[in-house]
């Protein structure tokens, strides 16, 4: 039985984490903290958890998280790095659902996230929690950097191709589409139903924070720096990410369908669909599954990964 | 040609007003003010108006609205009443899209809106801008109180019945459903796409500000105080209101379909549908039309107005 | 371990049933039949079941359902009654998700469903599967009539009030709102995204098949025939039902909140919310829970159940 | 005054055409035909047109379309080509909203549309109705082929770049996203609200009928055959198309923003947005405007057109 704490549980990652932990037979939730909602029952904020979670949010100042085996940070960027050092010293392992420990190059992180890093000494040892790449290291990590949403989708789709050198790593294109919950439970005008509903648009084309994270992972896989164009879009749906990836095929003799099937044969969270498929986001809703389909339209030199 | 000013044009009533005025052949827009957006082109905030409106928002402090023939307030409740006196004295007519002048009983207004009224002396002369009831007075009004969204729907549906004494005025039930834009362009968590989408709920059942406004209008029409239960709901759509109204029939000999057709025969903004119809909100989207259908299910003593 | 068969599993009730049975530790699925999809893997039709269900749809003509302990009918109205007699004679218990055995008055059923009943002799013994009313009988039933969607929502909301004689049974009003999946997986124009999306409307006001089913249940509970006005509406959401119920209070001394809490104290599928609540459909999505809130607006004589 | 006829007006192109013609001061609608709905008032099918169109659908067999100056075909593919010859001989001009006259290579058309062409002799003279390319020819055309939805979006976005030789024409990528109404008013399961709602997916990746149409237009503009990868997606919104286009820049010295502004300076239906913009589909809803933004992320060699 693992004793787990959660820092900041009022956003969408927090509630989803709670939903999973609440039904996990090997986890005991020690505390869930929120400065703003301290004292408030969790189920009052998230009615879907009524009857599943009896806890209240607790005041961070009065919560001894160092009694936990494991602490999750379901917080905005910049919080986990403030508290990581003390927890690690107390022997607590941490999983940051935000971005604080995802980028190995601290100065690059500071540029994209616009703040100095408060705990650079833990960045190097932090394990990037993509099980399809770092499964063994994850099992023993003290600091786990949970991958971003777009980076998970884009890396899983490109990995078999760049690892095998099948496509030109200098001209990767990732056209990604996200449901609105991806932006978090922030009260921004553009996330209102009356703004995001019945509408479609790209955003962040000049540069999005997930770009360096994706590039880092793919460069590692390619063994060289990759050239990536990444364009995110906002879809009028609540949940789900769809990435449409384009690569220029260098090795036309490779059977791409077989390549993907082999790469993910033993991966329980990746499902390679039969040839000719088009995955829909709904089919993986509320699961931790990524469904992938591979195409080479008209047998040309462009591979399309969905 | 009417010279019009707009105070506060950054919400949904403001942009809709702009859309209508921009194509109105008899209106010249003198200024549109916004403290927060002063200097910003209107079309930068509302891209759909690019090419239709060339103006920028102007600073209220530097805008001489007293040169207008008419000033619209597309502001939150409580703003129009602060500025009405001076404009009226300068000979400017005003139309308040908010609630400041809708309720004749000032103390009742103050109770529901939670603030003292800043201009009670103009409340009595203010005309409630429902043309199906006050068309002539509207034409000459100095202060026009634009009806609320729910009040428009509920009153138009009940008016023929209570005016003619066909239903019991003590047990009126209005089950109303609104699109999310009805709440305005406010950044509240419950209005987020990821909260309001794929969801349905009632709200404000213990009491909603539109209740006294509706009761005032229907009591006037009935010639006695009415008893009204009003339950609003939030629909995962952007625009539109659907009111489902229930009344107990007192005069079973009345042909209710004919009653509605006669009442609204000369009203250009009300369309009484043929017997057996079910209006859908989409069919009046972006128009100022109200479509009404009347039913007496199984010929019983309950009339249902849609 | 129960061996279960499913007749017709290509609609929304079928897939939901499969989702539940596939993870049920005490159920073995023997077969799922579909004339149209025979031979097709279930997961090809419903990708969300890939990895959870390995079966293919089987041809009804070649499937021996009499080897099952239990057969579910996830079929259109009129199918279960054709096959019930033989299965019952073979010792198989049946659960009809459609309407064939819901109405005790066979001629009433025939009037609303527009066909002669093929198995009237089993109607009397069929148990109406609302556990909050018939739990014990359900446990031993040979023929179980699964309640309709609207009838479940409306009955659960009215039951405590009519059982206790708290409201006038002659003037019950049920204003119900359903997600689009409630209509089934039929290809009707009005169910298209481009028709049902961003739209709201009532339908079936002159008469809906669920009216006699609701009336039957409430009349039983009231000990007298009830007078019910039932107006269903189509909401632009996928799943969920919200019923807003109105009743005229006869016994004003009764604490309605306490009445509901007592009535459903031991019911695991009904959750009575604290006073002042407004349940949202999302909070029960994909569960078999019904959340209820009770109001008496302004302390008047109308009770509102959500 | 132009006398216009409409063949087949019960789909989404038909109703939109009717909406535009009904308010056009220079058009008289002579007849709108529908075999299936003959005799039915147009407004009964499309309630939003109540009060704007008083006509009924007429039986094609009894409608003398040869009295029209102009006949629109708002029909499925394959209908206009059957009737074009006779109408042209009668001196009537035709505009086909479907695909019959869009592709100059008749055998290519027959391959993608799966039927023999019934009127190949008019294909050559047919004018492809994209005003930004063929404005003058449109004005005098006898047969006008209205461009497809995706082709309009993709061509307008790529045209300035391929005309000026700024990007590599061999590796064009068009990632396009369409609202559900783009599929027409067909009752297909995948277009149901409960299927298309809260979901996102690609479709037709192996090959979509709009591919040859786009390639034809871009090849003409480039003066050579282009290599295009075209991936359409279905967005859970009703209307609107968003194309995200990717090209590899060959001439890095060209100011792409200036190029687009110059190309479309006099085009009333194309609005080039300021640098750094992201157009949203909502801002052009129900208009015939195409808004375009141009990006070169991180100053690299990939141009992104939205």
What does this structure look like?
The structure is a homotetramer of 306-residue chains. Chain A folds into two domains: 144 residues, 3-Layer(aba) Sandwich (Rossmann fold), CATH 3.40.50.720; 157 residues, Dihydrodipicolinate Reductase, domain 2 (2-Layer Sandwich). The first copy, chain A, starts with a strand and ends with a strand. The longest helix of chain A is centred in the middle third of the chain and has 15 residues. The first copy, chain A, has nine helices and 14 strands. The model of chain A has no long low-confidence stretch (mean pLDDT 96). Chain A is an alpha/beta fold and 306 residues long. In chain A, the strands form three sheets. A six-stranded parallel β-sheet of chain A has the order 2-1-3-4-6-5, with helices on both faces. Chains B and C meet through β7, β8, β9 and β10 of B and β7, β8, β9 and β10 of C.
